Amino acid sequence: MNTQVTTKLKILKPANEVFEAIVDPEKMANYWFSSGTGRVEQGKTITWRYEEYNAEGVIRVLEVDENEKIVFSWGAEDHETVVTITLEELDKSSTIIKVIETGLKENDPEIVNKMLGQKEGWVYMLVCLKGYLENGAKNLRASLI
Questions:
Q1: 92-107 pLDDT, tens per residue?
Q2: How many domains are there within the chain?
Q3: What is the pTM of this model?
Q4: What is the CATH number of the domain that holds 91?
């Protein structure tokens, strides 16, 4: 069983704008987590917080290639996964963003539900990012109930 989750979306903005929306916590707060303790930079450990859900998550930034790639790990030690976000600029006005999350446990009896949940989360995050970058929508974050 392939225990990775892959999600892709085309955003009508150049790669540098998509990249900045992910790594800059002030921009990220407009569509994803409500706050972050710092900019996403290689080697940093950052806490992302959802005020609406009184929840937070810690990420460990493993790799950053400006305007092209972000890799981080997150989750509890025994359930840690690795997220790779790649940006492929098609032209100066559009980018394909791809998110791959690996490390889900194949023998977990809840693997299908977890994979579906992660896929749903990444689709939602990417749609909110698209709405923010292309249309200035800042009220989509945390709309799922």
A1: 999 999 999 999 988 8
A2: 1
A3: 0.94
A4: 3.30.530.20
